[in-house]
């Protein structure tokens, strides 16, 4: 069975060097922890561990085989979004990463598809880069953060980007970053365990209640890490719209219509939760995801889907069918 993992990240050493040549202060650097794990330092900020497969193709191919993943949709690393930097160098580094992802796809068309990264702190530039990435580089969409340094994705400044996404048919994956409430989430790795799904949920709610999904009926949006808390709390959103005036400011119909348009990846780390996601949203809205190569992802994504108590037809949709339909591969 051909399997397509829609959520994976890459930052090759060639890309690191090109970023450093373009903006020396942004230079990504690797420091070995052991044979397989490294510290990735970007613009002076360290992240650990960054596994070898994040930059080394042979390690990646071996991991894909062990995980029963036949094809990955490549995206940039969250460490190199550069949303906190000036627009011009951030846009230049986004273009470098997109060119490099397109180069990998061209070299390994049986293994990779690609999506872009965008300088969303400058939405007009983001719209331009998305259009270039899709129409000139052949990338299938973009992965963007859940906010731009605290600016939610329904802000009017993003309208050009959403219009470009709809116009190009881009598949937009929402990845958490710069999570809210970080001052209360410093202990126990809560910034990731709770902060990441929370910020994805905020982004989803803003797209719904801000009217973005309504204004752009062809927009394709995927909420990563199983959608955060969105599937579990969707009923609360609908109830709130029914009984309160505030949710009706931009949305004149029940938000259920727009919630039902979201796609989700499969990264929930537990069988009952993934079965709930498939049952509540429909198998046609869920796709295989690993979050490769990070430790908060999973090497078991294919086997987890195969173990679900759902029909074989629904398993096929999650493992490959939905991605084939959306990406046309």
Walk me through the structure.
This protein is α/β, with parallel strands linked by helices and 329 residues long. Helix content is 42%, strand content 16%. The chain is built from 13 helices and 13 strands. The chain has helices spanning 13-22, 57-67, 87-107, 123-135, 159-168, 190-193, 195-209, 212-215, 230-243, 256-259, 271-281, 301-306, 312-327; strands spanning 4-9, 29-32, 37-42, 45-51, 71-75, 112-114, 141-145, 147-148, 151-152, 171-175, 220-223, 263-265, 286-287. Helix 1 packs antiparallel against helix 3 and helix 4 (123-135) runs parallel beside helix 5. It is globular and about 55 Å long. The protein starts with a strand and ends with a helix.
Features of the shown structure:
single chain, 13 strands, 329 residues, 16% strand, three-stranded parallel β-sheet, alpha/beta, TIM Barrel, globular
Oligomer: single chain
Structural class: alpha/beta
Question: How many strand segments?
Answer: 13
For the largest sheet, list the strands in their spatial order. 7-10-11-12-13
CATH superfamily: Metal-dependent hydrolases
H/I helix tally: 13
Instruction: Calculate the mean pLDDT score and round it.
Output: 97
Could you estimate the helical fraction of the residues in percent?
A: 40-55%
Unreliable segments of 5+ consecutive residues: none
For the record, the count of structural domains works out to 1
What is the N-to-C succession of helices and strands?
A: EHEEEHEHEHEEEHEHHHEHHEHEHH
Main sheet summary:
5 strands, parallel
Shape: globular
Name given to the CATH architecture: Alpha-Beta Barrel
- % residues in beta strands: 15-25%
